[in-house]
Amino acid sequence: MIVIGIAGGTGSGKTTVVNKIIDSFPAGEVSVIPQDSYYKDSSHIPPEERSKINFDEPDAIEWTLLVDHLEKLKRGETIEMPTYSYITCTRQPETVTVHPTDVVIVEGILVLTDPVLRNMMDIKCFVDADADDRLIRVIARDCVERGRTPEMVINRYQDVLKPMHMQYIEPSKRFADLIIPQGGTNTVAIALLTDYIDGRLTKLNGRR
Fold this sequence. Notes:
The protein is α/β, with parallel strands linked by helices. Helix content is 41%, strand content 20%.
């Protein structure tokens, strides 16, 4: 099994990079573990307080569960990955069954900040993008998927996203083996990454 970590700022194009990697390999060969699925449950917090949760700091993530699940996958065990609702800011009762695959991608803004998780990765990537481009994508995404207004998104960007990016996410870039500028549009960098993964799989499994 090859474990790939893909980090980068909110709206940098991580999901596009992940999807292009998945599309480069046979169906069922790549599984994805999103950091967002491992946000700590906030159901015990009054609803009016949940909107104030800082999702962009490492303390918001249940790292021990994420690491435990990745260890199980590496041992060939199936996991039940949690799900999280941004609308209610709570962990959902539904889970997603994830089977061990040749390639596991751990994706999220903070995945390179945790040293235990980082040391489990065979390849560490950081998807880089211009701050203005990221903000435009965040506004479009949060208004459609998370029920926020543009004003709410901009205020949150100024108060939380930008300072947390500078404090935690940007510094984690130094741990990356590969930096992918221009986000998911950088076809050359993505091709280099997929070729490297394919070469590692060939050595591990003797395939292709």
